[in-house]
Amino acid sequence: MTGGGGRPRPAATAVTRARRRTVWPVSAAEDRSGGRPGTVERVRGAVAGAQDRARRTLVWGVWERMLETEFVDRSVALAGKAFVSFFPLAIVVAAFMPQGVRSAIFETLTSRLGIRGHALSLTKDAFVSMDDVRRATGVLGLVLTFFFASSFTTALQRAYLRAWRRPRDLKVGSYTRGLAWLVAFLAFMTLTGALGKALGNGLGLGVFVVLTVALTTAWWWFTAWFLLLGHVRWRVLLPTAAISTAAFLGYALTAGVWMPNVITKNLNQFGFFGIALALVTWFSGAAVCLIVGACAGPVLAEDPGPVGRLVRGRRAELLVDGAPPSLDAPVRAARLRDAFAPLADD
To answer: What pTM was computed for the model?
Structure first.
C-alpha cells in the first residue's frame, strides 16, 4: 500500500489493529492490570464493607434506636415542656420554701445551666423577686403549677417507653406518678444544691464531685425504673443511668463555657426574650442527653455478645416476672428522616 506521496505505508501490525479495536468501557468491572477490580469498584466495596462493620457495632444500634424514637422531635418536645412547665415549677416552689432550701434549689439550677458571674446577675434581674412570686401565685396557684408541670413528666415517660419498645397503653397512673416524680426531683435538686454549697469549695470539692456522680446515677436509675412502671429489671437499667449521668454532667460542664456568653448576647439583642431563647437551647441539649441514655440502655441489654451478658447477668430476661411483653422491632430499618417525623404517641 502506498501513500499519497508514492512511498509505501507500513502495514499495521496485529497489536496495532487490536489496540484500534479495543474499547475500554467506563463501567468495566475489571481494569487493564490483569483482571483486578477497578478503582470505582474498590471504593464501593470498601464503603460497603465499612457500612456493614458499622451496622454490627453497638454505637450504630444506639443510633438506629434514636432514629426509631424520632429523637429530634422528641427532644424538642421535652425541651419545650421543661421550659414552660418544669422550670416555672422550680421557681414557684422555691419561692414558698425556706431560705436554705431556696438557695439549694437555685444552686443546682444555676450550676447545671452553667450560669455564673455577670450572666447570673443579668438572669436574676430579669425575674421578679420571690416575694412577688408568692403574692402572684398563692397556694392554689402552687397546686395548679404541679399539675401543669406533670406534662413534662408524661413526655419523659413516653421517651423511655418508646426507647424500650414498651406497649403504649401501659401509662397506668402516669398522672399521679408524674406528680410523685416531680416532688422527688425537687428533693434531689435540694440535696445536690445543699451539698454544693457545703462541699463545693476547697478540699471538699473532690468529695462533692464523687457524691454528685453517685447521686445523679442513682437518680436516673430510679427515674428509668419508675417511669417504666417497674417492668424492667433494676440491673438491666444500670447502663441507662450511667450513660445518662455521664452525658448530662458532661453537658452541664460544657454549658459553663458557652452558656454565659449566649445569655449576655441574647439579652443585649432580644431583652428578656433572649434569656428565654438561651434556656430553651440548654434544655434542648439536655433532652438529647437523656434520650441517648434511654436508647443506649436497651441496645446494650439486648446485645447477644459479652456486653449484653454482662448487663443481663445470670438471667436472660429483661423484664420482671408478669410484665407485659415488649413490642417487636420495626419491620424496616430506621432512616435519618425518621428522626424528624411527628411523634406518633403525642
So the answer is: 0.79
